[in-house]
């Protein structure tokens, strides 16, 4: 089976979050299942810089578009073809894939991802690379939502699968943008792309794709309800029979404390005492006092209210003073969250370390060095860092939502007895509830070190492999292919 995976970011070419990890690691597992998979990504400046061996395979002239679009090709891990949509005026810019250097969304995002979608369709219909025609196009998040809608009108089209990584980000634009893009007028309808008077890219994918997925079973159930559906729960209920939740995996070679080249001291279950070397190294890196006994809590990820960053900011005084822990924080995001963290860091710089931006090696060092990983997301489609943490023997404290529920087993009398406990879970996104579980974790860490070590080892023994996910995707691809919508 031939599959074209379309994504707005792909690790290691460009990354802002978990979508890049999925697009970068899932294909390798699918190759192992016999899938002939190729990837397509916009030609951002970061992508071009990290693909020096690219070659031009086509130049596209699309009706209604003045720009010339070059389709470049490079390879991921030497065996997977990656198509790059090279339109410099749209993608070759400073800043990130979605926002500029000041943190504001690019004002032409609708046009940028419309052009990307149109280019993907040319590849999907073998009009860019006649030597290869996919059976299935796997689209990811709102940036690719137009692809199933526009492919729907093509003859002999491939099947389409659309994965929701985060329903909160939908790609909504005014009706005037719909007209500017020159989309078919029949698509402006409440049962198509129109959403309360706006164009909605995410809705396009939900309505027109042959099959829908989310990145965890629990999130697949949650988004059918108004609390997590962000206005699209009604649309999703009409497609419930075609919606499945497939839990993301992690790359166990990249995230492996036994061989990780970015950490100071490699370790395994049998050499767990060596983990403290990484803790001291992280404390030094963040200019904190080197103290092997003081609990070290890590926070890594997008800095947004969705991730509960405001809860962390409000909890920091009690955590560093009353619970006597240190925090190290790595991430980037909204200006308000970043500023709030700068302010609290200025007050507690001897107990709180802060690094704004994305730094993959540092993320590995933090996972290896921390005792606890804090992830109080208000909603979490899947989450990857709680899985990385368990792999590194770093005990997660998480809110009971989405993929966090599916991957972390709460410490309780019964889970300790049957040796399944891997973390601490709280059920309401409030500072007080979060602090109670952090306090319980610190109490176990300080007073029952042998039990704490068992929890660490339980997490390190969990298997979150992409191979398992790849098998589920293969079944889904076949189902989509056999049941394409007319």
Put the structure in a nutshell:
This protein is of the alpha/beta class and 486 residues long. The chain is 39% helix and 18% strand.
- Provide the helix percentage: 25-40%
In terms of DSSP E residues, the strand content is 15-25%
So, CATH architecture of the largest domain? Answer: 3-Layer(aba) Sandwich
> What's the mean pLDDT score?
96
Please identify the oligomeric state: single chain
The total number of structural domains is 2
Low-confidence sequence ranges: none
Q: Classify the fold: give the CATH topology of the largest domain.
A: Rossmann fold
CATH class of the largest domain: Alpha Beta
**Largest sheet, spatial ordering of strands:** 3-4-5-2-1-6-7-11-12
CATH superfamily of the largest domain: Glycogen Phosphorylase B
* Biggest sheet details: 9 strands, mixed
Question: What is the number of beta strands?
Answer: 18
Distance between the termini: 21 Å
* Total count of helical runs of at least 4 residues: 20
Tell me the radius of gyration.
Answer: 23 Å
Structural class: alpha/beta
What form results from the Cα inertia axes? Answer: globular
